Amino acid sequence: MPEALYDKVNEIGSVGIMLASPDDIRSWSYGEVKKPETINYRTYRSEKDGLFCEKIFGPEKDYECFCGKYKGIKYKGIVCERCGVKVTTSKVRRKRMGHINLAAPVAHIWFFKAMPSRIGALLSVKASSLERVIYFQDYIVIDPGPSELKQKELINEEKCREMRNLFGDQFKAAMGAEALSMLLAELDLEELSTELRRELSETNSKQKQKDLIKRLKTVESFLHSGNDPQWMVLDVTPVIPPDLRPLVQLESGNFATSDLNDLYRRLINRNNRLKKLIDLNAPEVIIRNEKRMLQQSADALFDNNRCRRPVLGSRNRPLKSLTDMIKGKQGRFRENLLGKRVDYSARSVIVVEPELKLHQCGLPKKIALELYQPFIIRRLRELGLADTIKSAKKMLERRDEEVWDILEEVIDKHPVLLNRAPTLHRMGIQAFEPVLVEGNAIKIHPLVCGGFNADFDGD
User: Fold this and answer.
1) Which of 29, 145, 320, 434 can pair with 171 through a Cys bridge, CB separation 3.0 to 4.6 Å?
2) 416 in a domain, yes or no?
3) Cβ(90)–Cβ(242) under 8 Å?
4) Domain assignment of residue 437, yes or no
5) Is 372 part of a structural domain of the chain?
6) Residues 86-98: what's their mean pLDDT?
7) Which among 180, 156, 186, 185 has a CA at the least distance from the CA of 104?
8) What Rg, from alpha-carbon coordinates, does the chain have?
């Protein structure tokens, strides 16, 4: 079985990052999240169709359905006809996703507020103008018809009403993410690429050439990657697995929760309210305001720090959004995927020791025990001091006298590698002959600091 797994891993040549289509998002999902509730605070069980629903995300207890009708591994794979929960391991709550069907489309904040604005580059609309359309301040002309206005021109409500009275259905203008979706749907990327290349060859202005090259790069990227520009406007939002946004009960009885749950709750509340208003045929002004609020809650969920007014939590701290979870040093990529904990390694502060030779380093005894553990265990077994690896490990834990003698023996002819981040050139990692020392700090000769660019202020 492991061999088959390795074969599958080796088949993967690369990982690509693409825009997710609405169909992709729904295909990942195990069900629609309809309610903003997390758990029932009387029973401490998850709410049905809520953010922690067991039917969508899987059981909280291994091989036990929500209602308790099926318990045990013998029922594995059975879907309970009473509560709808599939009997399986609770680990699935780390990978099962849900989705929220939005009552109105929302534009993804990464693609209109980031610089350069991808939507702006494709439509040739300034980022500030895009924001006025997305947040329902101005209309954007989709089809000017017989009017003197141009496509993608911004107009206020009064002008829009006047044009509609004059030209009726021949004139089309809209606002919000829905308007951008209509314009993106009309784009012919190949035709646009040809047009931009023609303009580029004809213009002599350096600034215009620079702007055209930026637009052309974006258009070419969409053409070659197979992404559809319409996917930058969402009508369905993914809900990440509950174990990646946990809700934990503290000893005091209070609950600590991930900020994402608050952001999802805001989005679901506003989405449900908008659905209700549409069903009630509420006035256009009210629906428009609710759509704007839905857009703002989606912005906060995806990238709260980029919002004009970020959603604040306790002590006026901006809530951590999905972007905050994946970006930066503590983000998912750098902390978990690129930075791994390694066996037989240690980390400590360095202190100066001029008495050492240039090729030596002072290694604390407890660090040496960890680094040389396999050598010590093998030597203990060779000498007949331990019969099994388990008993040898117990001797190491007890710090038996024989262990120290063997440690002195094995460090000879086994150098250690010292690394100081950031490792910018090959001298960032150097080999040293260890000398056992007391204390917790690694000792090095002052003359080797140059290669590491190290000093003794806490490195």
Assistant:
1) 145
2) yes
3) no
4) yes
5) yes
6) 90
7) 180
8) 31
**What single letter denotes the amino acid at residue 394?**
K
The encoded tokens of residue 346 equal: 């240690």
Rounded distance between C-alpha atoms, residue 129 and residue 430, angstroms? 55
At 435, which amino acid appears? V
Above 70 in pLDDT, residue 145?
Answer: yes
The answer to whether residue 310 sits within a structural domain is no
Task: Give the C-alpha separation, 55 to 52, whole Å.
Answer: 9
DSSP 170: G
Cβ 449 vs Cβ 370: under 8 Å: no
- Residue by residue, DSSP assigns 68-103 as SSSBSGGGTTPBPTTT--B---GGGGGT-EEEEEEE
Report the 10 Å Cβ neighbour count for 131. 17
Contact 38, 52 (CB under 8 A): yes
Say which residues have a Cβ less than 8 Å from residue 458's Cβ, sequence separation at least 6: 349
CB 245 within 8 A of CB 121: no
User: Which CATH number fits the domain that encloses residue 422?
Assistant: 2.40.40.20
Please name the amino acid found at residue 411: I
Specify the 3-state DSSP secondary structure of 24: helix
Residue-wise pLDDT tens digits, 421-437: 888 889 999 999 999 99
- Whether 113 and 84 have beta carbons less than 8 Å apart is answered as no
Average pLDDT value over all residues in the chain: 87
Segment (H or E) for 214: helix 206-225
- Per-residue pLDDT of 207-259, as tens digits, reads 888 888 888 888 888 888 888 889 999 999 999 999 988 888 777 778 888 88
Tokens 């559809």 identify what position? 228
pLDDT tens figures, 253-290 = 788 888 899 999 999 999 999 999 999 988 989 999 99
Q: Residue holding tokens 């303009």?
A: 199
| Cβ count within 10 A of residue 181 | 20
d(CA 31, CA 27): 10
Q: Residue 381 pLDDT > 50, yes or no?
A: yes
Quick: pLDDT tens for 2-30: 445 445 666 777 778 889 999 999 999 99
Helix (H, G, I), strand (E, B), or coil: what is residue 360? strand
Instruction: Tell me: pLDDT of 51 over 70.
Output: yes
**Phi/psi of residue 249, nearest 5 degrees:** -90, 130
DSSP letter at 237 equals: E
Give the pair of three-digit tokens for residue 297. 């809650």
CB distance 459 to 444 below 8 Å: no
Total domain count, the chain: 1
- The full DSSP string for 423-451 is --SGGGEEEEEEEEESSSSEEE-GGGHHH
Q: Nearest 5°: CA angle at 347, between 345 and 351?
A: 130
User: Residue 441 belongs to what domain range?
Assistant: 350-452
